[in-house]
What we know:
Largest sheet: 2 strands, antiparallel
Structural class: mainly alpha
Helix content: 40-55%
Strand order of the largest sheet: 1-2
Number of strands: 2
Amino acid sequence: MSQKKPGTGSDRLNDFSAEVKRSREQREKSYREQALRLFPWVCARCGREFSGRKLRELTVHHKDHNHDNNPPDGSNWELLCVYCHDIEHSRDVDSQWYGEETRTSEPGASHTYKAFAGLDSLLKGKKDR
């Protein structure tokens, strides 16, 4: 069997990866604790309240999606339950996959298709029977 020499590229890469992971976990723990002190323990989307063991299901969402942007006033955070947090991030994936929704530039512009056009005449015919 071959034995790895200490300080090889593979060992350094593993050490670096482990350090990055520890650093990220520590940073997340820090801003999560701050957010839990600042905000009520309620999901900002669905309004579900959390306490006790269920508190672990409440996550910190970065509004600008930059996990390094952690202002002490919490202005870039919102507390979301794990389900709403997944939905929030899936919106980004969906928009990347399907493209951004196109909007008209005119305020008040509407669609031209009228789903219920002519319904009144159909209903009048039923009343007359």
